[in-house]
Specification:
Blueprint lengths: L2 E5 L4 E5 L15 E6 L7 E8 H4 L14 E8 L4 E5 L17 E4 L2 E6 L3 E6 L8 E2 L12 E5 L2 E9 L6 E8 L7 E7 L1 H13 L3 E6 L6 E5 L5 E2 L1
Antiparallel strand pairs: 1-2, 3-4, 4-5, 5-6, 7-8, 8-9, 9-10, 11-12, 12-13, 13-14, 15-16, 16-17
Length: 233
């Protein structure tokens, strides 16, 4: 399957050819693709296609019962070169490099950052190298919904829902990585959904909401609510 990318720098649509792996994905073997683009640096972009074990070994019946969602390879398309490259030596990361289909990601400092299972934010450069693993700031994270990463005011942010030991209720927390070269997150916000949404929206949506973005220049969070994410706050 081809991708179609709108390049905001040129305001033109570009057709990205099939990597050879996306066409093998089905409803149960879904594609996991992310866009790497920073108009402040270059008008060129990269498409990252993550190939999970059930797609990589889909023709190997002996492997069928051992799939656990780990990423076996990453195909990366460069709009400058016009070709795909395949990167598959991630054995040193073992089971730590596995990600939800809807894992939030952001392209920051020329590197794709994404949330993965097992409580890690993983930066991957355009050459397919995993640069390091940044532990998320919450020890009691939701394994199936590890949160998301964003960029605002030149810094990396992380947000997640967690159950507060103090209130015994779920709260939304937002953290910032003040020093990018460290692993020290600083808490910016921790708020109960009732206080955040107000009584009317909380009674209507409860905890059925998620953060979709943080404003790149201001202290502002964008969220969607409802089962179909049809309400924007």
């Amino acid at each position: 399957m081809d991708y179609v990318v709108c390049n905001p720098a040129t305001e033109k649509w570009v057709v990205v050819p099939d990597s050879g792996w996306s066409s093998k994905a089905t409803y149960y073997k879904a594609r996991i693709a992310r866009l790497g683009f920073d108009p402040a640096v270059s008008s060129h972009f990269h498409v990252f296609e993550f190939i999970p074990d059930d797609v990589w070994y889909m023709d190997n019946e002996q492997m069928e019962n051992s799939f656990d969602g780990r990423i076996e390879a990453v195909a990366i398309y460069s709009s400058k070169a016009g070709v795909w490259s395949l990167h598959k030596d991630y054995s040193e990361w073992g089971g730590h490099f596995a990600m939800p289909r809807d894992s939030k990601s952001v392209f920051f400092n020329g590197v794709l950052h994404l949330t993965t299972f097992y409580g890690m934010v993983v930066p991957i450069d355009v050459e397919g190298n995993i640069l390091r693993g940044i532990p998320i700031p919450l020890p009691d994270y939701d394994e199936y919904n590890p949160g998301g990463v964003y960029v605002s005011q030149g810094q990396l942010y992380f947000s997640s829902m967690y159950k507060s030991d103090k209130s015994k209720d779920y709260e939304l927390s937002v953290w910032v990585l003040v020093d990018y070269n460290s692993e020290n997150w600083s808490l910016k916000l921790s708020v109960n959904p009732l206080h955040l949404l107000g009584a009317f929206y909380h009674s209507k949506f409860g905890y059925d909401f998620s953060v979709i973005s943080i404003h790149p220049d201001h202290d502002m969070i964008f969220m969607v609510c409802g089962t179909e994410n049809s309400n924007v706050l």
